[in-house]
Amino acid sequence: GLTPVQAMAAGRPVIAYAGGGALDSVVEGVTGTFFPEQTPESLAAALQLWEETAFDPETIRAHARQFDSALFKARFRAFVEEQVRG
To answer: What is the pLDDT of residue 68?
Structure first.
């Protein structure tokens, strides 16, 4: 799942197989598009949709920022502290 996030951090939309980590990071029609089957036809259909969609690079970058390691650490720390306080 890291490769799609890296592409999105650069403001680039992603074309990804609808499985695995991409399902957690790519937002259909906003940060990229999925192809549901690992076939040439499915990929071709996704490419067509991707070309017809107006993706906004800044929206894509903003979405990728939520996966920033510093943000993850801060959220994790807050979660642990909340659990300790009980």
So the answer is: 87
List the beta bridge partners of residue 34: 16
Tally of CA atoms within 13 A in the half-sphere of 71 that contains its CB: 7
Length of the chain: 86
Which position has the token pair 């920033």?
Answer: 68
What does the alpha-carbon distance between residue 63 and residue 25 come to, in Å, rounded to a whole number?
8
At residue 11, the pLDDT reads 97
**Rounded distance between C-alpha atoms, residue 41 and residue 75, angstroms:** 41
Confidence of residue 74 (pLDDT cuts 50, 70, 90): confident
Burial 33-69 (b: 16+ CB within 10 A, else e): bbbeeeeeeeeeebeeebeeeebeeeebeebbeebee
3-state class (DSSP) for residue 75: helix
